[in-house]
Amino acid sequence: MRDLVLSRGLINGEWVEAIDGKQVEIVNPSTGAIITAVPDMGKEESEAAVIAAHTALQDWRKTTAKYRAGLMKKWFDLMVENADGLAKLLTSEQGKPYKEAYGEVMYGASFIEWFAEEAKRMYGDVIPAANPNNRYMTIKQPVGVVTAITPWNFPIAMITRKAAPALAAGCTVVIKPGEDTPLCALAMALLAEKAGIPKGVINVVTTSRPAEVGDVLCRHPLVRKVSFTGSTPVGKLILRQASETVKKVSLELGGNAPFIVFEDADIDKAVQGALISKYRNAGQTCVCTNRLYIHDAIYDQFLEKYTQAVSNLIIGDGLVDGTEIGPLINQKAIDKVAQLVRTAVEQGATLTLGGNISDVGQQFYQPTILTDVTEEMDIAHQELFGPVSTLFRFNDEDDVVRRANDTPFGLAAYFYTQDHARVWRMSEALEYGIVGINEGIISTEVAPFGGVKESGCGREGSKYGIEDYLEIKYLCHGI
What we know:
This protein folds into two domains: 2-253 and 455-478, Aldehyde Dehydrogenase, Chain A, domain 1 (3-Layer(aba) Sandwich), CATH 3.40.605; 257-444, Aldehyde Dehydrogenase, Chain A, domain 2 (3-Layer(aba) Sandwich), CATH 3.40.309.10. The chain has helices at residues 43-60, 65-81, 83-94, 98-118, 157-169, 183-194, 210-219, 232-243, 267-279, 299-311, 331-346, 397-405, 420-429; strands spanning 9-11, 14-16, 23-27, 34-39, 125-127, 134-142, 145-149, 172-176, 202-204, 223-229, 248-252, 257-261, 289-295, 350-353, 368-371, 388-394, 409-410, 412-416, 434-437, 452-453, 456-457, 470-478. The longest helix has 21 residues, at 98-118. β10 (223-229), α8 and β11 (248-252) form a beta-alpha-beta unit. The chain is built from 13 helices and 22 strands. It is α/β, with parallel strands linked by helices. Strands 14-15-16-13-12-18-19 form a seven-stranded mixed sheet, with helices on both faces. Strands 9-8-7-10-11-21 form a six-stranded mixed sheet, with helices on both faces. α2 runs antiparallel to α5, α3 (83-94) packs antiparallel against α6 (183-194) and α4 packs parallel to α5. The relative contact order is 0.14.
């Protein structure tokens, strides 16, 4: 792992310090230990990174898809070879259990492999001409310089979901990783460099001043696309900033995912699906179950089994074997979750399990279950981003659809039933970009990931994921 721990940013193929020498310490959330310090970059370094990406673009965009695919395949191979070290680094700076971290490394690498293959399938069209003296066709070309602004909760996968299609399309990128988790981005950039990807094609700006850096990366006239994963309020700001120069924008924003269990569901499968959807990464994912709607007929049975399963989860340092729940990312996250739980109890929710800071450490929150929750409570309308389950009762299919859709968010939803007619009704009625049907894990590189309403725009992964990095050009040829 130590060979992958870097303490400098990457601009134009050079590993550099901040111009003013400032640094920001990166802390292990499980232990509080300082892992290293990275440059605390600002406006000047961000502009330099954009210019470097623009300069590199002039040659990179002219390369063949086969050439780009070959380099990306080498990058993929290096990520797989270094999966153990990357996973340990990820756990050290982000906190998730090693098993989850290793899974993320392989998931992240899968996007590089997938888009390396998709690079060779960016087909244009020949269009039947309306005029016998003309020939019509379309070609696809790279949009240009891309800025990728990524969060801390998936510090590898959120980067490869953006950088891989960008590179495959012939674009160059400037990456601003999450302030708490820049080390994985730097490690992946190092492996890309070793794979032979030319200087300036990938640039990484580390900072503790995201607003200052983001302002440059979203407004700079040389940037032609912004891809952002994070909160809805920040996403709205980025959309406004990018609109000044009419950039392409992809946004993967907040969620408030419902998890609906009908009376005919396989309860054991529903419990396991809810468990993994809710408590993966200590509840710190945008597609985490936020609201569990359980049919009255099976509510007590589900609650008993679910409470037992949650109570058996093992909390601890992610690098210790057997750990299933790691820390929250920082004290601010702990404070938010604790306040949401306190307020819910004050408003009438019943604390069935957990509800406190764990004895393991200050940044560990106990896996928690709240029952008797209603839509009148504040917690029903918040993205929890913590290991807290809220259970609601329902009796009627139409009613639960209405309640599930009663949110400005529309990223992911889940439901469990064995009624095939209901599967189609629910799939079509839920206003979400992703729907898990009798399944709690929905992410894969081969399927489109993204939301509707205030959960964002655009899709990542799958054959659709490369489209936002391309421009369609129509050619009208007179003969």
